[in-house]
Amino acid sequence: MKYLLTDEQTIGDLRIFGQRDSSGMYDLYNSTHTRGAETVLKEMFTKPLADQGEINRRSSIIEHFAGMGLSFPFEAALFDMAEKYLTAADEQKKQGTQHAVLSEKEIANGVMAVIELIQRIREFVDRKEVTGISALTPERESIILLLQDTAFEPVMREQGKGKIAYAAVTAYDLLFRHRERSKVEKLLGHIYFLDVYMSVAKVAKERKFVFPKAMEKGKCHLRIEGVYHPELSNPVSNDFAMHPERNLLFLTGANMAGKSTFLRAVSTAVYVAHMGFPVAAKLMEFSVFDGIYTTINLPDNLGIGASHFYAEVLRVKKVATELNAGKSLFIIFDEMFRGTNVKDAHEATVEISIAFAAKKNSLFIISSHIVEAGERLQQVPSIGFQYLPTRMNGHMPEYTYTLENGITADRHGMIIIRNEGILEILQHGRKRAVRRTIGSYAD
Questions:
Q1: Is residue 131 located within the same domain as residue 248?
Q2: In this model, does residue 130 exceed pLDDT 70?
Q3: 46 backbone dihedrals φ, ψ, rounded to 5°
Q4: What is the rounded CA–CA span in Å between residue 405 and residue 378?
C-alpha cells in the first residue's frame, strides 16, 4: 500500500486531530460505534493513501453506503462484551496473576457475544445491497472465506440467543480465545472497517459532502468547486483550479481577509481526498500526489536555537529536498519568510517562487503581504495571481472571503489599530471614542 507523505507540521496546521478543548478533522468524521473502528479511523487520518485505485475504491464503498443509508448492524454493547472477553487473557498475563480476570458468567456472555457477531456479519455481507457494492468485493470475500472455515461451522448452527450448555461454553471459549483467536480478531477487524465506512457515509450524507475523483499521479490537476472549511458555521465557498501550466498561485490579501482559512480549506480537502473520504465542496477532481506539506503556523525551534526565520529556511529546504527527489507534491506556504526583514523576504519569496514554479509535477500556493513581489513573478507564465479583497465601509473594513483574480495592495492595519483606540489608550489612558466592532479578526 502506498501512503501520502506528510509530517507533524502539516497535521498540526490542518488540525487533523483535536488539541485541548478544540476538535479536529478526526472528530468531525468520527461517528463510529466501536473502539476498534476509532483506532482504524485514526490510522486512516495519520496515513492517507497515495494510490489512485485504492483511493477511488474506498471512496466508492463509502459513497454506496451513503446512498443506501444503512445503519451499522451491531450494538456497541455487543462489541464491548466481546472485546472484554477476548482480551481478558492478555490482561491476566499483564497483571501476572493466576486468578481468572473473568467470571464464569462473563465468559458465557463473551462467548454468546462472539457467536452473535459472527452470525450477524454473515447475514450482513449476504444482504443484496452489500453484495452489489463491487468495490467492497475483496473485503466481502475475505470475510466469507473466514466464515467458511470448518472451525466456525458449529457457530453458524447455533440457534437464537438462549443460553448454551456449560460444556459448549467451555468448547467455544477454547476455540475463540485460543485455537482460532487470530481468525476471530480478523473478523472483528473487518467489522471495524465496515464501521468506519458507514460512519463516514453518515457524515457525508448529513453534511452534503462530495466524493472526490482521484486521477493519475503526476498530472498535477486540481479542480474544486464550492470548497469551504468544514468547521466554519457560515462558510463562504470558492471555486479553485490548478494545472501544470499554472502550477503556482501567488495569493494576496490584507490581514483578516481570509487567506489562512482559504489555505486550510483547500489543503484539508486535498488531504482528506487522499483518504478516499468525502470533502466539504460541491465537486472535486485531483491528481494523486506523493506528499502534502503545509507551512501555516510554523513555530520557532527553540530546541536547536532556531529563530522563526531559520525555521522557515529549514522548512523550505525540506520541501526542496523532496522536490529534487522527483516527488509530486502539494505545497502551501502562508506568509513565506515573515520572520525576516522586508527586503530579504521580498527577494527570497521571488527566487523561491520562481524555482518552485519550474517543478511542473507539483502544485504550490504561496500567500504573501509582499505585493511588490508580483511585478517580477508576473513574468513567469506558470504563476497565477488571486486575492481576497477588502471593501471599506467608511472607516470599517469588510471582507467578502471570495477569490478574485489579480494582486491586491489592500492594507488596513493602521485603520484597525485606530478603530481599537490603541493610540488614545497609550496617550490618555483610555479610549474616548465608542468602540466599533469589526467582527472576528481571524484570518
A1: no
A2: yes
A3: -80, -30
A4: 13
Q: Assess if residue 123 is contained within a domain.
A: yes
pLDDT for 90: 65
One-letter amino acid for residue 151 of the chain: A
Residue 260 has a pLDDT of: 93
Which residues 6+ apart lie within 8 Å of 75 measured at CB?
33
**How distant is the alpha carbon of residue 245 from its chain centre?**
28
Lowest mean pLDDT among 109-118, 140-149, 161-170: 161-170
Residues 384 and 235 in one domain: yes
Each residue's pLDDT tens digit, 289-322: 999 999 998 765 544 445 778 888 999 999 999 9
Q: What residue type is 143 in one-letter code? A: I
List, in sequence order, every residue forming a beta bridge with 334; answer none if it has no partner: 367
Cell 467608511 belongs to residue: 394
H-assigned helices in 325-412: 342-357, 373-377
pLDDT one-digit tens code per residue, 12-32:
999 999 887 789 999 999 999
Dist CA 214 CA 343 (whole Å):
41
152 and 294 inside one domain: no
Number of domains in the chain: 2
DSSP for 138-195 reads: HHHHHHHHHHTSGGGHHHHH--SSS---HHHHHHHHHIIIIITHHHHHHHHHHHHHHH
DSSP letter (8 states) at residue 23: -
Q: Are residues 132 and 73 in the same domain?
A: yes
Identify the band that residue 114 occupies on the pLDDT scale cut at 50, 70 and 90: very high
pLDDT of res. 11: 96
- Bridge partners (DSSP) of residue 250 are 366, 385
Residue 109 near residue 85, CB atoms below 8 Å: yes
CA-only gyration radius of the chain, Å: 27
Backbone angles phi, psi at 406, to 5 degrees: 120, -165
Domain that holds residue 92: 31-207
Residue at 429 is within a domain: no
Tell me which residue of 102, 82, 81, 80 sits closest to 91, measured CA to CA.
102
